[in-house]
C-alpha cells in the first residue's frame, strides 16, 4: 500500500473514491481551487490517499483552523474526509492514513487535532482507539411557531464584513472553533457549504442593521443554523419577525450559541444535545486533561457554522 499526495493520483481515481464515500465526484482542480481560496488548506493540499495498484483504497484530509483557548488563539488540525472504499473496510486503511497524517501534523508543530464526526459511524471506535475523545455535542433548540409580528425585515445579502463583525461579537467569551477567517465567505463558496444563500441581514424600522440570521424552510419547519445580533435585546425582535413570516409549524435552531442559551429557553425553546454528531479531540503531546481545560470544554465551548468542516 502506497500513501500518496493529491497530485500523485488521477481525477477518475479520486472521483470513484469520493462517489463511494461522499456521493460526489472530485478532482485535483477542486483541491487546487481550495488551496487558492481557503487559507486553512495547506499548500500541499491537505489530502493523503492510500493506493494499491490502480485503485485508491481510502483517503484522509486536514485543514488548519484557528482554535480559541484560554491562552490565546492557536492553529489546530481539523481532520476531515476520512474515507475507505467499501471493499477495503476493516483492513486498516484508515488507521494507516491517520497515523501518517498525525506525523505530518506534528512535523508542522501543531498540537491539537479535532474531528467532526458521528458516533453512529463504525470509524468512531477507531478514533477512540487512536486517542481521540468525545468533547462536545452541538445543542439544538426547537419550539412551536406562535403568532408574531415585528417591524424587523430580512434582506438576502452577502455582506460578509458585517457578518464577521456581528459573529465575532456574539462569541465573545467562548472557546473552541469560534475564530472566523476573514475570507470565510469565499471559502464557503468554493467548498459549497455552508450555503451562503441562506444569509439574511436583519434591519429595524429605521433601516439600521441589528444582526443577521441563516435560515431555510425544511419539511414545513423553519431551520436556523446561525444567528447573531449587535444587542441581545434584538434577539426577540428577530424571532418575532420569523414567526410572523413563516408558514412552518416549528422553529429549529441548530448549533446553539452558548451566549444565547438563556434567551432561547426564556423565549420558549426546548434545548437538547443528545445527538449522534460529535466533536472529538486529541492532544498530540498526550496532555489531554490540561488541554481540555485550555479549550474551555464544557459550557463555553462552541463551533461556528463556518468554522466547522
From TrEMBL:
<dbReference type="InterPro" id="IPR000182">
    <property type="entry name" value="GNAT_dom"/>
</dbReference>
<feature type="domain" description="N-acetyltransferase">
    <location>
        <begin position="1"/>
        <end position="161"/>
    </location>
</feature>
<protein>
    <recommendedName>
        <fullName>N-acetyltransferase domain-containing protein</fullName>
    </recommendedName>
</protein>
<dbReference type="GO" id="GO:0016747">
    <property type="term" value="F:acyltransferase activity, transferring groups other than amino-acyl groups"/>
</dbReference>
<dbReference type="InterPro" id="IPR016181">
    <property type="entry name" value="Acyl_CoA_acyltransferase"/>
</dbReference>
<dbReference type="Pfam" id="PF13527">
    <property type="entry name" value="Acetyltransf_9"/>
</dbReference>
Amino acid at each position: 500500500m502506497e500513501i500518496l499526495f493529491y497530485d500523485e493520483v488521477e481525477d477518475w481515481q479520486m472521483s470513484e473514491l469520493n462517489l463511494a464515500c461522499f456521493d460526489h465526484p472530485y478532482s485535483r482542480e477542486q483541491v487546487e481551487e481550495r488551496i487558492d481560496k481557503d487559507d486553512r488548506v495547506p499548500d500541499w493540499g491537505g489530502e493523503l490517499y492510500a493506493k494499491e495498484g490502480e485503485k485508491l483504497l481510502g483517503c484522509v484530509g486536514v485543514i488548519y483552523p484557528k482554535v480559541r483557548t484560554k491562552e490565546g488563539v492557536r492553529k489546530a488540525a481539523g481532520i476531515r474526509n476520512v474515507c475507505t472504499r467499501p471493499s477495503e473496510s476493516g483492513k486498516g486503511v484508515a488507521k494507516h492514513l491517520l497515523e501518517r497524517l498525525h506525523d505530518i501534523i506534528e512535523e508542522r508543530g501543531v498540537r491539537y487535532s479535532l474531528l467532526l464526526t458521528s458516533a453512529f459511524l463504525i470509524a468512531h471506535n477507531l478514533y477512540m482507539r487512536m486517542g481521540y475523545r468525545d468533547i462536545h455535542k452541538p445543542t439544538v433548540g426547537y419550539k412551536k411557531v406562535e403568532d408574531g409580528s415585528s417591524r424587523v425585515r430580512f434582506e438576502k445579502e452577502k455582506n460578509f464584513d458585517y457578518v464577521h463583525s456581528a459573529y465575532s461579537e456574539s462569541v465573545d467569551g467562548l472557546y473552541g472553533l469560534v475564530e472566523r477567517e476573514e475570507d470565510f465567505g469565499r471559502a464557503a463558496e468554493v467548498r459549497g457549504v455552508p450555503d451562503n444563500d441562506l444569509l439574511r441581514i436583519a434591519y429595524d424600522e429605521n433601516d439600521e442593521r441589528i444582526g443577521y440570521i441563516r435560515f431555510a424552510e425544511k419539511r414545513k419547519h423553519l431551520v436556523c443554523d446561525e444567528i447573531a445580533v449587535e444587542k441581545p435585546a434584538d434577539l426577540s425582535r428577530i424571532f418575532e419577525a420569523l414567526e410572523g413570516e413563516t408558514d412552518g409549524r416549528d422553529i429549529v435552531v441548530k448549533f446553539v450559541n452558548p451566549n444565547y442559551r438563556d434567551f432561547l429557553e426564556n423565549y420558549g425553546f426546548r434545548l437538547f444535545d443528545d445527538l449522534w454528531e460529535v466533536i472529538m479531540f486529541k492532544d498530540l503531546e498526550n496532555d489531554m486533561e490540561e488541554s481540555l481545560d485550555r479549550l474551555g470544554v464544557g459550557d463555553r465551548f462552541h463551533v461556528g457554522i463556518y468554522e466547522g468542516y
